[in-house]
Amino acid sequence: MAKVTFTIQGPPGAVTLHAFLGAFQNQLTILNDLDAALSRKPNGLLDWFVTDLRLGSLEASIRSAYRDDDELAPMNHDRTVARTYSNGFRVIEGEGRSPEYFADRDLMAARQMFRLVGREGVTGYVVRTDDAEDAVEITPRAAVHVEQLIKPGERTIGAVEGRLVEISIRGADPRVTVYDDVTKKGVSCYFSEQLNDDIKMALGKRVFVHGDLMYNRRGEPHKIRLDTFRVISETARPTSDELLSSIDNLTGDLTAKDYLELVRGN
Q1: What is the rounded distance in angstroms from the CA atom of residue 81 to the CA atom of residue 51?
Q2: DSSP state for residue 221 in the 8-state scheme
Q3: pLDDT exceeds 60 at position 263
Q4: 3 state SS of 176
Q5: Quick one: which of 14, 59, 213, 232 could link to 54 by a disulfide (CB 3.0–4.6 Å)?
Q6: Which phi-psi region, left, alpha or beta, contains residue 183 (left: φ > 0; alpha: ψ -120 to 50)?
Q7: Is pLDDT of 47 > 60?
């Protein structure tokens, strides 16, 4: 069982109901997405239950519970979710970069919460978990940092390699989330409806995605408009030359190294 304690700091009686409900809803969104990403199950494995609620600075403690038989779950999965959650806020606050396994929707949820610091009676937030040595304090600078992780930066033709975990068909453009193999950052990949069946077949697998790539202001891959993709074998990992040559006429007579240097302007 994992335990998370979340505190909304502010004078007694000053925090609005809007801020209170929104903060806890955004926390649940992030926890559920991390659960799905780390378990590789679209709906995750965990439910969260309130075990304590205190007034003054509004503080709630929640605990995890597996919906089904936890023998099928990764070892200490619930604690890994809680630790990734608290570390994510620590990284945004302290380093200003995208945390591991935070998808675009999670950064948006964090931004909604961070923007309220200094408004609606909220002066800050504190996050504690059982495994963390220190609590994570969230200050106004977290709102500045998360804006740089969401706002668009440069665009180029590029690729992302990682595990395809989440599919969303809401809105005008269906998208998937691919977690980069190196950074573990969630990258939103938008695709045409004609690829729906192929994308569904690739759910949970490692993929190579190529298309119109947009970076955030921090210079991290943020979104990609998918032109083509392929599933990568878990046993035999192809070289960059093999991956790029699998896309018709992409590199011409150039090697993968020369092509990437040309794209990057080196």
Answers
A1: 18
A2: E
A3: no
A4: strand
A5: 59
A6: alpha
A7: yes
